[in-house]
């Protein structure tokens, strides 16, 4: 296909041995229990910002992977507008490079979005990776914006590409990922 090589972002790694890595392992262990409600609960004694940061990175990686499996079906011609049905159309603005929201195709929007999220996650002032480095005062609002925008990718996949997801036999993975995401953001 002629998809942008930038759309599928490299997995954001959490350094092994770090506190974030231990939190991710805890999340994966509770996820493996099959109890998604338990998997999203803040572990006792843990920092809420740290927990949100680790899960935000994990959801970015999951959505990135899920979308990566259907990029050949999500093209400029098949998805000329970023939408989740006729009532929900998303326009892109990042507040820095693109200040006024622009209408764009789904693959372009998702490319902008994933690049923007990757930049946020890589910004040590927003998502500090070192223990003892405090999270910024606006961290919760940054994380909420990231999660709100990542939700749009799930919405687009469900509305526009669920038939492809089913043909690829990925619906169980998509549904579990989405259910985990919804429990987490609630």
From TrEMBL:
Residues the record lists as binding Zn(2+): 74, 79, 156, 161
Domain of life: Eukaryota
Tagged with keyword Chloroplast: no
Keywords, alphabetical: Kinase, Metal-binding, Transferase, Zinc
Molecular function GO labels: kinase activity
Protein's UniProt keywords contain Ion transport: no
UniProt xrefs under InterPro entries: MOB_kinase_act_fam, MOB_kinase_act_sf
PANTHER family: MPS ONE BINDER KINASE ACTIVATOR-LIKE MOB
Stated name of the protein: MOB1A kinase
Lineage: Eukaryota, Metazoa, Chordata, Craniata, Vertebrata
Gene: Mob1a
């Amino acid at each position: 296909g002629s998809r942008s090589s930038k759309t599928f972002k490299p997995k954001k790694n959490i350094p092994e041995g770090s506190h974030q890595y231990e939190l991710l392992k805890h999340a994966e262990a509770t996820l493996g229990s099959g109890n998604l409600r338990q998997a999203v609960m803040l572990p006792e004694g843990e920092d809420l910002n740290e927990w949100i940061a680790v899960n935000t990175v994990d959801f970015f990686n999951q959505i990135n992977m899920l979308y990566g499996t259907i990029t050949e079906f999500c093209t400029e011609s098949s998805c000329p507008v970023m939408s989740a049905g006729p009532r929900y159309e998303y326009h892109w603005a990042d507040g820095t490079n693109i200040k006024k929201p622009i209408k764009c195709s789904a693959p372009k929007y998702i490319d902008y979005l994933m690049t923007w999220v990757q930049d946020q996650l890589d910004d040590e002032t927003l998502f500090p990776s070192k223990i003892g480095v405090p999270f910024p005062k606006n961290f919760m609002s940054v994380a909420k914006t990231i999660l709100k925008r990542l939700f749009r990718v799930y919405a687009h996949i469900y509305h526009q590409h669920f038939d492809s997801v089913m043909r690829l036999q990925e619906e169980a993975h998509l549904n579990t990922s989405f259910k985990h995401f919804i429990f987490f953001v609630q």
